[in-house]
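User: I've been trying to design a sequence by hand for this structure and keep getting stuck. Would you show me what you'd pick, starting by listing the structure so we're on the same page?

Assistant: Good idea, let's start from the same input. This is the structure you sent:
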């Protein structure tokens, strides 16, 4: 049975504006296929919108595995798969909401639709226990010490993410 293509996130040192300005000239570090481990080769890409300090059109490279023949989107670390907003925007909304600001106020502060901010928070709340367990395991395996985790699973999950 053939696997579906995956998004591979890579650490990008460029800002969103620098990345957008580079266009198709963006250099993506060599990546391995998440299915079989073979080296991916460049396989064109696609343009997509990203909202971070305004909306920008960015180029997302794709990689193709010669062994599996699958293609994978190669996303810079500030892009969230299937979301218009940058990771920092989503994270800021979650931090403000968890800190006690209502999601309507968060949406107004960040210039988002209330339903967007509310839905992010709902998804985060529902998935926070699993995220916390996974992130804590990764953080500990990388040598981080998770001391004084905040009360509440949502806040603890965000704290563990910051420790990685």
């Amino acid at each position: 049975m053939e696997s579906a293509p995956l998004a591979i996130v890579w650490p990008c040192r460029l800002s969103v504006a620098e990345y957008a300005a580079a266009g198709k000239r963006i250099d993506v570090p060599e990546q391995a296929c998440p299915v079989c481990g073979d080296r991916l080769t460049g396989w064109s890409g696609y343009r997509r919108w990203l909202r971070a300090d305004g909306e920008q059109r960015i180029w997302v490279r794709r990689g193709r595995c010669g062994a599996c023949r699958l293609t994978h989107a190669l996303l810079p670390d500030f892009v969230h798969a299937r979301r218009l907003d940058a990771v920092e925007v989503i994270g800021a909304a979650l931090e403000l909401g968890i800190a006690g600001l209502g999601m309507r106020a968060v949406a107004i502060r960040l210039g988002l639709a209330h339903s967007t901010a509310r839905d992010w928070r709902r998804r985060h709340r529902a998935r926070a226990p699993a995220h916390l367990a996974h992130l804590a395991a990764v953080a500990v395996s990388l040598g981080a010490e998770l001391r004084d985790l905040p009360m509440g699973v949502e806040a603890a999950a965000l704290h563990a993410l910051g420790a990685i």
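That's my pick for every position. To get oriented when you compare it with your attempt: The radius of gyration is 18 Å. The chain has five helices and four strands.
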